[in-house]
Automatic annotation (TrEMBL):
Family listed: Belongs to the type-I restriction system S methylase family.
InterPro entries, per the entry: Restrct_endonuc_typeI_TRD (IPR000055), Restrct_endonuc_typeI_TRD_sf (IPR044946), Type-I_RS_S_subunit (IPR052021)
Single Gene Ontology BP annotation: DNA restriction-modification system
Pfam family, one: Methylase_S
UniProt protein name: Restriction endonuclease subunit S
GO molecular function terms noted in the UniProt entry: DNA binding; endonuclease activity
Key words of the record: DNA-binding, Endonuclease, Hydrolase, Nuclease, Restriction system
Organism: Neptunicella marina
Domain Type I restriction modification DNA specificity, residue spans: 45-187
Top-rank taxon, per record: Bacteria
Amino acid sequence: MGAWMRRNDAGGNAVSWPLVDVGDAIQFIRGITFKPDQVVEPFSEGSIVVMRTKNVQIAELALDDLISVPKELMKRDEQKLKNGDLLISSANSWELVGKSSFVGELGYEATAGGFISIVRPKKNIIDARYLYHWVMSPKIQHDIRHCGRQTTNISNLDVGRFKELKIPLPPLDEQKRIAAILDKAVSVRRKRQQAIDLADDFLRSVFLDMFGDPVTNPKGLPQVKLTELSDVISGYAFKSAEYIDDGEDSVRLCRGANTLTGYFDWKDTAYWNKEKLAGIQNYKIKSGDVILAMDRPWISSGLKVCVFPENERDTYLVQRVARIRPKKPKYTDFLYASILSKAFEKHCCPTETTVPHISPVELKNFNVLVPDEKLVDKYHDAVVKVRKSKLSMQKSLVEASNAFNSLSQKAFAGEL
């Protein structure tokens, strides 16, 4: 155990908090393993609900798609979830190892599945919400991922190394104070995300009303390959060793890290020398292009796809990112919504046990509906009315997320 120095307390006096191995403050309980043929009707007699990777979301547990297994598969009573537990993704794609959800009062018996584990705070040592915010802080998420053992398709959390991560452990009252501040920041971020979700739900409803569900095609619309309505390419293999600093002689590069769920994030941006663009002008992104991240495209907040806005600086497409350019500009919003549909997810068939990747061939072979052009125009007009306010909401969400990350960093550096 070492000592960690806080700058000062409320009275201006320097204080020390102990740094402890997180393993000394928690129980780490592995989830149960089960086979697909052991799944039974949710909440049936003699069964227990199993939380899977898809249920572990950053904001909170997703409880809209539950399964159950016979309770006898749970070998130890400690594997039953309790209010205040954390569920942590312990076997997943590398970037998702460590993703965690806080378990509140469920109202029914539940346990963790084989790809996730239970982190249970020890009472009178660590506050559950304080522990959750520490686990989900950007630095610790980075450290947890580097506790993983990466293989070709899946990474596994090295539990021993995880337990050795150092956590600052102030008195419980101070832990609760810090957790309360971070909870308020989370609430602000969640409300801004909910506003975006409402806008998305509205546009999804408009799409379904006009065109029907692409999975079932109840209106009997004809279908064609995506390439019939758009020009589809994947990006250029820019060499990272030749990236340059931003300046008058540079253009921006769009990578998977910049392409998020409905918006672009240029916080971590690469740049390329304008003098080296000969022969690759086709990779320049234009306003109205639909941009899709092809590696690990599905994250907790959805599919990493967005529409490139107007009045942006010159930006070029990097490999493993796709550009879908509608042959008719007003088809942008229709194609964007089609890519966001369940039909596209079903076409790509992502699973919990493999690293999702969309290939160029797979993307080009996706079938889209072909509605009447007047209906497409009408849908475009509806989207235009919503988009301006949605972009503003997305900007506010990014600002709220950045503010939360700053607060989190300060909290665990003794500056809050």
